[in-house]
Amino acid sequence: ELIKGQGRGCLLKEIHLNVTDLGLGYRTKEELIFRYCSGPCYDSETNYDKILNNLTQNKKLGKESPSQTCCRPIAFDDDLSFLDDSLEYHTLKKHSAKKCACV
Amino acid sequence: PALARENNCLNAAKACNLNDTCKKYRSAYISPCTSRVSTAEVCNKRKCHKALRQFFDKVPARHSYGMLYCSCPPGDQSACSERRRQTIVPACSYEDKEKPNCLALQVSCKSNYICRSRLADFFSNCQPEPRSLSGCLKESYADCLLSYSGLIGTVMTPNYLRSPKISVSPFCDCSNSGNSKEDCERFTEFFTDNACLRNAIQAFGNGTDVSVWHSAPV
Predict the structure, then answer these.
(1) How far B80 CA lies from chain A's nearest CA (Å)?
(2) Which is nearest to B87 in space by CA: A95, A81, A32?
(3) What pTM was computed for the model?
(4) How many CB pairs below 8 Å do chains A and B form together?
């Protein structure tokens, strides 16, 4: 059953990566499963979103274009620790999604 | 140049982070074991030990033993062995400002009920017996490995020594033993030069002992 506002297309996906693929500057040979949220959010649009859409199209807001509904994490995965090449430990927090929703 | 060899300890760490349970409990001990709490203390040792005990309690042996008992090429003193030594975050869980006498450490272990019972299990399950094929009096490598890993997170926390062959010890020595020097050396040799424990660790590392999977925590 879909949680209200979740959106049918917005899903949790995962990919197996090297820690170095994250581009955070660590030198290590360790790996991880990175989970992310992806997919469209048309289903969960509110009147607010429809109004914003109309106002931007009719250029009533000038040059502004406020953000639309987005498929984003609403909970994060557990922390990840790894040992780097100089034998130092690092712990990443809030690096990977656990639950997604259109927000 | 030497051939690039498989680093079993690195492979075990990779496998751990790809498993949700192992990943969770690994970072749950690495965090407290690497967080500085004050200018004087590198970490909260009590929290580090507790989280280490949880890791070995909750994580399937396939993963926890995989990291603790991974095998390294003989004579390897770098990538593989150093990673194995780092498994328990020795800077926090093992090393201390002063190295106590081993018999004094044993007395302090006996004043704690977890440590007392785990040390007794270790002495009973890793008792060497030169006449048996396994090298152990109780011919179960699984029981010996379980009781050795049970010491991790107590004041008797053992770790690998930087030595060409597999040798482990708690953080203590036999200086200032007085007339108990022999007793003290008997105690340390049960860790550093124990054929039963060494065979058990090697059999796990080489994957030659299948029985471990059945009796270890799942």
Answers:
(1) 11
(2) A81
(3) 0.89
(4) 48
The beta strands (E) that lie in chain B are given as: 158-160, 168-170
Residue B69 tokens read as 């008992």
Please say whether the beta carbons of B143 and B123 come within 8 A: no
pLDDT in tens, B89-118: 999 999 999 999 999 999 999 999 999 999
Distance from CA of B16 to the nearest CA of A (A): 9
Q: Which residues of A touch B89 (CB under 8 A)?
A: 89
Question: What would the pLDDT profile of A26-64 be if each residue is shown by its tens digit?
Answer: 999 999 999 999 999 987 788 998 898 899 889 898 888
List Cβ neighbours of A57 (8 Å cut-off, separation of 6 or more).
none
List the single residue in A30, A80, A89 with the smallest CB-CB distance to B34: A89
Contact A79 B31 (CB under 8 A): yes
Q: Which residue has the tokens 């909260």?
A: B44
Three-class SS string for B112-168? Answer: CHHHHHHHHHHHHHCCECCCCCCCECCCCHHHHHHHHHHCECECCCEEECCCCCCCE
User: Does A36 touch chain B if contact means CB atoms closer than 8 Å?
Assistant: no
Q: Are strands A97-102 and A80-83 parallel, antiparallel or unpaired?
A: unpaired
Residue of B214, B215, B211, B205 whose CA lies nearest to B81: B205
